[in-house]
């Protein structure tokens, strides 16, 4: 037992240091705010989100710029996809006639394995920050041939 005295003392010092740093971090977080833009268990059209896919996960964060007057072709996302429109205006449409108007600051839970297209309906470039929760080596967007 004689040999453990300095180890316990050193461990106590480390514990005090870690506790002190944790308290400082928590104190600093009091000034930080977080706003949930969107949280859902369904896509924007109300369809339930499917279970996560098996495989090695790969997250991509992509800034997509759609020039004024441009359209996105009909496509699907095989995996969970979400975005926040940073600027401009977008309209997302399904072949069945469902539409979603998106304005700056809006969060969107994309349709999964459901064909849809989009169009910039504004007069400036539309910029959307998209997060794809995909599977390594697999495409996160696939064109749908009409």
Describe what this molecule looks like in 3D.
The protein has 146 residues and is an alpha+beta fold. The protein folds into two domains: 1-34; 57-143, Jelly Rolls, CATH 2.60.120. The chain contains one helix and nine strands, in the order αβββββββββ. The chain has one helix spanning 5-29, and strands at residues 57-66, 71-76, 80-87, 90-93, 99-102, 107-109, 116-120, 126-135, 142-143. The protein has a five-stranded antiparallel beta sheet with strand order 5-4-7-2-9, with no helix packed on it. Strands 1-8-3-6 form a four-stranded antiparallel beta sheet, with no helix packed on it. Strand 4 and strand 5 form a beta hairpin. The chain is globular and about 55 Å long.
Our estimate of the beta-strand percent is 35-45%
Task: Based on Cα principal axes, name the global outline.
Answer: globular
CATH class of the largest domain: Mainly Beta
Largest sheet: 5 strands, antiparallel
The spatial strand order of the largest sheet comes to 5-4-7-2-9
| Low-pLDDT residue intervals, each spanning 5 or more residues | 1-19
Q: What percent of residues adopt helix (DSSP H or I)?
A: 10-25%
Number of domains: 2
The helix/strand series, from N terminus to C terminus, equals HEEEEEEEEE
Tell me the Rg in angstroms: 23 Å
Assign the CATH superfamily of the largest domain. Jelly Rolls
Number of strands: 9
**Class from secondary-structure proportions:** alpha+beta
CATH architecture of the largest domain: Sandwich
Distance between the termini: 78 Å
Mean pLDDT rating: 86
In DSSP terms (H or I, runs of 4 or more residues), the helix count works out at 1
CATH topology of the largest domain: Jelly Rolls
């Amino acid at each position: 037992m004689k040999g453990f005295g300095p180890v316990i003392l050193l461990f106590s010092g480390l514990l005090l240091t870690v506790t002190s740093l944790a308290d400082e971090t928590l104190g600093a977080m009091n000034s930080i705010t977080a706003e949930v833009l969107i949280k859902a268990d369904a896509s924007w059209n109300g369809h339930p989100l499917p279970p996560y896919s098996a495989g090695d996960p790969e997250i991509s964060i992509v800034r997509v710029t759609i020039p004024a007057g441009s359209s996105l072709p009909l496509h699907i996302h095989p995996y969970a996809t979400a975005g926040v429109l940073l600027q401009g205006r977008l309209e997302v449409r399904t072949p069945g006639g469902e539409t979603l108007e998106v304005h700056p600051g809006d969060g969107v839970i994309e349709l999964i394995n459901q064909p849809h297209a989009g169009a910039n309906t504004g007069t400036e470039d539309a910029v959307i920050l998209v997060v794809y929760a995909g599977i390594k080596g697999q495409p996160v967007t696939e064109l749908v041939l009409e």
